[in-house]
Design brief:
The chain is α/β, with parallel strands linked by helices. It is 23% helix and 21% strand. It is built from six helices and 16 strands. The strands form four sheets. Strands 3-14-13-10-9-8-7-4 form an eight-stranded parallel beta sheet. A four-stranded antiparallel beta sheet has the order 5-6-12-11, with no helix packed on it.
Length: 331
């Protein structure tokens, strides 16, 4: 499938499956686990103009049917991210979409002005906060489009996605992501305190699926469906939710959050499964390429990949021989 986002500078996505922001880091961190050329695009972790520290206190709280995550969106700031990853983006086998968090119109403008000059950045996804109203959506998109001619994807909050989709289209966004994870509050069993953050789990799918279907009937923009995609059938459901659109409009594109390969398939960040069999004679690429594949596609890697690159390690080491282990506790 090819989809060209309407903008002065266009990008073509070869297929409708990609990771959601916050899954694949800023560069090629998962290139050894997954053939990135199978993806329609790679979306980076959220980035802001100014550096942000990780949230204090408990950041991961298990809950019935899912988990609450409170990170604080830690990142070293856009200029540092660009300096560290620009060369990696240039070698990516899939288009790179940088996710910019809309902290303020001025910061959004600064970010998009910098990214506009980087050829290896194919598009920009603009993350809008959960309480954003129509005026804030308009001002954030206007600031972004002032700074760049690259395609702009507006990621809308789940609860207001239907109301804000038309606003995003009128403001000039070239596509919308439906939707950012919902927010909630859960009591942490360890500290006994209430913790607020974003909610993840299979139950999110029902709400996201309904929002995608309603937005698909309301706007003519490409839609990136995201939320609760954990199986190939979940992915097909999202595509079907947009099937009521006129045939002249693009189908729903998929984002998700579980990149680990399972059962002979490559499950792309909780999205649709893509066949992972490599052509005969597939060879590993050069070690000098940051995004290079290190093994034929389809080879299952049970890595020390559980080294938790994103959180920096675990406090729980491997279990002693002959003794049951305990689940790792994230720092």
């Amino acid at each position: 499938m090819e989809l060209t986002l309407g903008a002065k500078v266009t990008v073509t996505l070869s297929n409708p499956v990609m990771p959601a922001a916050g899954v694949f880091g800023f560069g090629g961190e998962y290139a050894r686990m997954l053939d990135l050329s199978l993806l329609g695009a790679v979306i980076t972790n959220p980035v802001t103009w100014k550096p942000r520290k990780a949230a204090s206190g408990q950041r991961l709280v298990p809950m019935t049917g899912g988990v609450l995550v409170h990170t604080g969106l830690p990142n070293p700031g856009l200029l540092k991210v660009v300096a560290d990853y620009k060369d990696r983006w240039a070698t990516s086998p899939a288009p790179v979409i940088v996710h910019v968090t809309a902290t303020s119109p001025d910061d959004v403008l600064r970010c998009t002005e910098v990214l506009d000059g980087i050829e290896s950045v194919a598009a920009i996804e603009l993350g809008l906060h959960a309480q954003a109203d129509r005026r804030e959506v308009e001002s954030a998109i206007d600031a972004a489009l002032t700074g760049t001619e690259k395609p702009l994807i507006a990621r809308l909050p789940l609860y207001n996605a239907v109301k804000l989709a038309q606003t995003a289209q009128d403001a000039g966004a070239h596509a919308v992501t439906i939707a950012a994870p919902p927010r909630g509050t859960v009591r942490d069993a360890i500290t006994g305190r209430l913790v607020g953050g974003r909610l993840y789990g299979t139950w999110v799918k029902a709400m996201a699926l309904r929002a995608v279907g309603r937005v698909a009937r309301a706007v003519s923009l490409p839609i990136f469906g995201c939320g609760g995609i954990h199986s190939p059938q979940d992915a097909r459901d999202f595509i079907e939710a947009g099937a009521s659109r006129p045939s002249t409009l693009p189908p729903v594109i998929l984002q998700g959050r579980d990149p680990a390969p399972r059962d002979g398939q490559t499950r792309v960040s909780g999205g649709a499964a893509i066949a992972s069999k490599a052509p005969n004679g597939a060879a590993a690429s050069s070690d000098k390429a940051p995004f290079a594949r290190r093994a034929p596609v389809g080879a299952r890697r049970i890595a020390p990949a559980r080294s938790h690159r994103r959180c920096g390690g675990c406090t729980a080491g491997p279990p002693a021989p002959g003794r049951p282990g305990r689940r790792p506790v994230h720092k």
